[in-house]
Amino acid sequence: MSGPVDRSGRPGAGFEGFTHDDENEESKSDEDNSEGDNKAKKGSFKKRAISAGNKFRRSLRRKSKKKSGNLASIEDIRDVQELETVERFRRCLLDGGLLPERHDDYHTMLRFLKARKFDIEKAKHMWSEMLRWRNEYGVDSIEEFDYTELNEVKKYYPQFYHGVDKEGRPVYVELVGKVDANKLVKVTTLDRYIKYHVKEFERSFQMRFPACSIAAKRHIDSSTTILDVQGVGLKNFSKDARELIMRLQKIDNDNYPETLCRLYIINAGQGFKMLWGTIKSFLDPQTASKIHVLGSKYQNKLLEIIDESELPDFLGGKCRCEESGGCSKSDKGPWKDPNIIERVLNGEANYGQQILAISSTDGKTVSYTKLHSSAPKSSGHASTSGTATVLEESVPTVVDKLVDDVCNSPKATSMASTSGSFSLRNIRMALGVLRTQIVTCLTVLIMSLFMVIRSAPSRVSERFSRQSIGCDHNCGEFPQNLEFKVPYVLRRLRELEEKVVVLETKPSQMPVEKEELLNTAVCRVDALEAELISTKKVLYETLIRQDELLAYIEKQDKNKFRKKRFCF
């Protein structure tokens, strides 16, 4: 049998046309289905992320009760990349059993990460050493330590907190030029003073920083420090003073990192400025940027960061605190306000914050979350508990917003339309390309640094050789070979150190017997000087009398000559 015939008489044409129409309808239906699948998959992906975030928030909210009353709205700006790094660091600490509840704090973990350049392994080691030190030193019970000699200590080591800067940070002042280490060790011991120093640091995290956060309505965990070095000399750097400085510096750097926002060294002389210019080149640029060395005209610089009503009058401000006996005794600041103290004890510094997370690459705001007020746990440390909830509630919100951005971006839409479905495969490919580029750039950078480091010794030796040759022509005292110049400089440094040690061993005051002998000798010298003056006066009168006698004798001789001449 022949096939069906269409109107043109061509056999099979009608069947082919029917098949072609069916294929068009099937392709259209497939495209509609693929678009529907794309939307469904994108929607399901977004729903899963949002539901996971909501479940996470609800599980956290169940752990604490609702607190009545309106709490302080404290803005807490966080970087998205820092949030992710802190979360990874937190999981690492939890896996190692190194995260006690009272230290489960976002900003504390961030400070340790910053201190180690966001190297999680180094930060973990630093964190574990901090926990070990706190356990051995008994930091958690240090509030019980009673430092009875504090008033006497401040006479020989003037130091105090006074007010806040224009950003709300507490201002700490030390009058280094008035430190007398020899008298300080007579009224206290180094161990007791260090224990008092640790107690003050803990008090700052428990009361001062939270109070400043409530007053400034932004998170505060660092301070502004002013060091007055007027009158600083060798007497301020005795053996006890050097030991105290080294021990305090180690405790602060190892256990309370990144708590200094800025440091102002005022009344610095030219010698100190030259020394600082040398030291600054060896410091990390970020650390060096926090330190400002000023001379005697420092007032305007301080007033740029501290309001004149918060700055003591002897530092260029207008505050005198006469009702408290002076600014050094007032301990002025938000932490003295009874209302703020009550709010700190209620935990408002950590419950009721607004987290504004921003992207570190383009500065675009990706999340803005106002935390629900939750009652703090009764641990007695309101400033260190509960901020883990802040971190954990902020991360899902940031994830939700990032999911929206990824799902709605043009690049994601084009990828979905070309591949037929929204999957993580394309994201992995993009991340793989990005990872390859980063590895390539790092390889080039490391090779460049390696070449620079290899060529540095030869350049340095050539430079020193030229300097030594020029110095040989001009001075003639330095050795001609660089290998002999370094030991020469070291030997000279040792000789200077020995002379300084000899000067330090000599008594600062003269013995009484020698002082009496010296006073007697001075009195005798004064008497001899008076006798010499009287003798000089007598000699002068004698000379005048001698001149008169000579004139009289000459006159008599002339008269005799005239008489003889008259007789002849």
TrEMBL record:
Its main location: membrane. It is found in: Cell membrane; Golgi apparatus membrane. GO terms for cellular component: Golgi membrane; plasma membrane. Residues 1-68 are annotated as: Disordered. The chain crosses the membrane at residues 429-453. Residues 18-40 have a biased composition (Basic and acidic residues). Residues 41-68 have a biased composition (Basic residues). Coiled coil: none annotated. Pfam families: CRAL_TRIO, CRAL_TRIO_N. It comes from the Eukaryota. It is a peripheral membrane protein. One of its GO terms (biological process) is protein transport. Residues 149-323 form the CRAL-TRIO domain. Keywords: Golgi apparatus, Membrane, Protein transport, Transmembrane, Transmembrane helix, Transport. PANTHER family: CRAL-TRIO DOMAIN-CONTAINING PROTEIN YKL091C-RELATED, OS01G0701900 PROTEIN. Belongs to the SFH family. This is CRAL-TRIO domain-containing protein. It comes from Triticum aestivum. The gene is LOC123078879.
